[in-house]
Protein 1
Amino acid sequence: MAAWNIAMVLLLCAGAPVTAATDGAQLYATHCAVCHGDEGAGGTGVPLSLPSFLAAVDDDFLHKTIRYGRPGRVMPAFAMLSEAQVDAIVRHIRGWSDVPAPQFAKTRVKGDVARGGRLYGEHCARCHGENGEGGEGTGVTMSRPRDMPIIAPALNNRGFLAAASDQQIRYTLEHGLDGTPMPSFREKGFTDEDIDDVVAFVRSYGQRGPSETATVGPGPVLVAESPYSLEETVENIRQAIVNQNFVHIRTEYLEHGLVPAGEEDIREVILHFCNFRFLDEALKIDPRIGLFLPCRVTAVEREGSVSVMSINPLYLSILFNNAELDEACGKMHRLYRAILEESTL
Ligand code: HEC
Ligand code: HEC
């Protein structure tokens, strides 16, 4: 993953302001290409340009998938884009194939959930997981060895269930997705009834509470209260960064670049730092960690009290579901904790 792409995603994660532009190609390049590839061929994200995929999903699904993302998986929710911008991205994606966009009826598929569950266990679980939690890893081009060219998405995911209609799921089961490991179950001898039962089963994930993958252990943010003033705290963080063998890259207002210069909230300061060897090691394990590097710590003053915050790297392990990465995340977690504690002691 090019450094530039990482920078793009960092901007995206930081909630960079979105221009009013509705140029689909430009919006796609800014928000999606880093994961799904410049021409939609896939990367950290699944391929979007395959004719089989574009024949199997309607515009409503694409629109909702962009809006809701896949909570707990790597696909972000793009809540900050306008409706017109989301539509422009959908049109851009459509431009990759001559296949006309399907329009699926919103009628529910009726089936026997229990029977569908049994069929699911026999035919789907090995790829999509025992509980629909998806395959380990994500997308197509990850650094570590995997047994499948494209990782099966989570089907118990709130974002997926909110975006996909029953009829669309039915179509995907009937036809499969040519060019991916997802087979056609019509070709595998499924009857209409078999397919309906499996659709009813997949849909029932939505009635069984939030998906497994969306439940989280440790919270996403580490916080420490500082007894010092904001200026002193920032200076302490700078010192702690150096003590932990990191290079301090820069300190700026959190809103730097997001609002006109001079209008930033001066009570919110962010420090960027890096240890290039650590970065290199982590990226080799899993390029997705690039989403969270360089390291950042934020100091915020609210009503006279100052707190220091960072992301919780252990939370990333849960999102990424990669044992090797757990170790790197554990290391990062200890470093962040040390910096937070040292600067507020
Ligand atoms: C940080 C990486 C990342 C970014 C950025 C990203 N995606 Fe995704 N996207 C994914 C992953 C990973 C999946 C597969 C979800 C899963 O594994 O459960 C996915 C799934 C999807 C799907 C569903 C595909 C399917 O098979 O049903 C669509 C559509 C999609 N993304 C479109 C977009 C668009 C459009 C953008 C930009 C607005 C975008 N994504 C940005 C990683 C990303
Ligand atoms: C050999 C592995 C494999 C098997 C078996 C399999 N799938 Fe898939 N499935 C995949 C992959 C990989 C994808 C993602 C393809 C893509 O979008 O690029 C997928 C995609 C899907 C999608 C679209 C998901 C989305 O995010 O839009 C649905 C729905 C689905 N599968 C349901 C099923 C069901 C139900 C079964 C069992 C009847 C099943 N699959 C069996 C590998 C598999």
Note: The pocket of heme C (ligand 2) is lined by residues 46-47, 53, 123-124, 127-128, 150, 152-153, 155, 160, 164, 169, 172-173, 177, 180-183, 185, 198, 202 (CB under 6 Å).
Protein 2
Amino acid sequence: MMDNIFTQSRRRTGWGLSVVLVVWGVWLFTPGLPVLWAPRAKAEVRAAGKTLFEHEWAPHDPLAHGDGLGPVFNAKACVSCHFQGGVGGGGGNDHNVLAFEALPTKKRPELESGLIHKFAVTNRFLEDSSSLRKFFPIVPGGVRIEGGCQILTRDFDPIHTKSINSTALFGAGWIDRVSGKTIVHEYRKRALAQLPRDFDPKSRGALPGRPRVLPDGRMGKFGWKAQFATLEEFVAAACANEIGLGNPRMDQAQPKTQWKYPKVQPDLDATQFRALVAFVDTLSRPEETLPTDTRHRQHAERGKDVFRTVGCAACHTPDIGGVSGVYSDFLLHRLDDPEHRSSGYREVETPQVPLPEDWPLEEEWKTPPLWGVADSAPYFHDGSCTTLEAAIQRHHGDAHDVTTAYAALSADDQHAVIAFLKTLKAPAGADPAPREAKSEIALGR
Ligand code: HEC
Ligand code: HEC
């Protein structure tokens, strides 16, 4: 029998459509491409980047194309806050930065966030909570009449501040290459696996966390709140906010005071900025280093098994997207709950205006990668836990069931988990940090 041209083309379209649908379906339910190659950069580019990372910036610095350090800043060098275990590591609590969020109010519906800088090039530009208050005043409470009843509303303070500890940057280039699709894929897999038939959404043990999808649809991976999708963007923000270095991707931070600072040329040109990003991108990844003597090695190896069986690996996913030994799912979780107020839980005021859905709640934090954790104390976003034991004890909320199971382990098994965590070291080949970075650099006001 003969097909006419019309039915042929219809048949072809039908085929085409099914192929597209099948491909789309397969694409939707498969992870993204794994990371296949290590980050690389030319030796001279990396060396130029290292110089910029270690450089102690000054106002009108000869290396800068704009005004150099400031006008507001938290330290004079990247390495001042990133030095533990070598150049690029984490920092101690004396280098914590003070971050603020100004929640939206009826009069000011946009949410704002930033840093309250420790230092400024002149006193006029010095920031503190009271200079911030001028922009974000307390909204006085009052009496509201609702259904004939008088309802008292409390004063609403839109400003929330948090002290934030610096993270280690080793292996950041690998994390940069993990596709957002893979993270969402792993999340979906786990969410499905964790939903038993008698799923009770109120039960705390079954919460799989959530990915941070940024307003433009990309996945957030960097920062304690997963607030940046790429390493390059984080480096741009670190230059602008921590040291006051304007760059091709971001203007330098403006003082949050009544005084205006004039607009100047970016401090870093495109070549310098690319070199700095390349340096951070190619910092070696941390290494799992087992003790050499048999008894200690076996103890740590058992700890690695217990880490999985007790449930730590549910959030601290050992391998993701072809990057092995990273120990993070890159999702937001809530580890605080009302029963553990001493652990930092704070009753959060209801915002006057609903927050955007992608915005993390005050108590939501990204699972930090545990690679290199042996060399990155203190722990948690605020650096409040000085030891690994204390860090584990502070897991409540989403980790409630895992923490309970951990507490029920024998002391020997608990020690084995700690022994395993202590094998997660900064890369042995990291460049030694300059001595002055380790001791507090004198930062005059
Ligand atoms: C005053 C201390 C300080 C200085 C100086 C500083 N940082 Fe950081 N850095 C931090 C803190 C704190 C964090 C964690 C911030 C967060 O997650 O919100 C961080 C996080 C980062 C991250 C994200 C890492 C991750 O995996 O999430 C990168 C990248 C980074 N810094 C690069 C730099 C670079 C490059 C410089 C120099 C231009 C620099 N930092 C200077 C304190 C500092
Ligand atoms: C529900 C997810 C979840 C589970 C389960 C979980 N963690 Fe965590 N872990 C997190 C999050 C989120 C943080 C960061 C919290 C913060 O900074 O406020 C964290 C932080 C840590 C830290 C501190 C890391 C750093 O760089 O500051 C260590 C160590 C740690 N976890 C170990 C463990 C161990 C060991 C277990 C098992 C006993 C475990 N975690 C179970 C989500 C989880």
Note: Residues 310-312, 314-316, 333, 335, 365, 367-368, 370, 373, 376, 379-381, 388, 391-392, 395, 398-399, 402, 406, 417, 421 surround heme C (ligand 2) (CB under 6 Å).
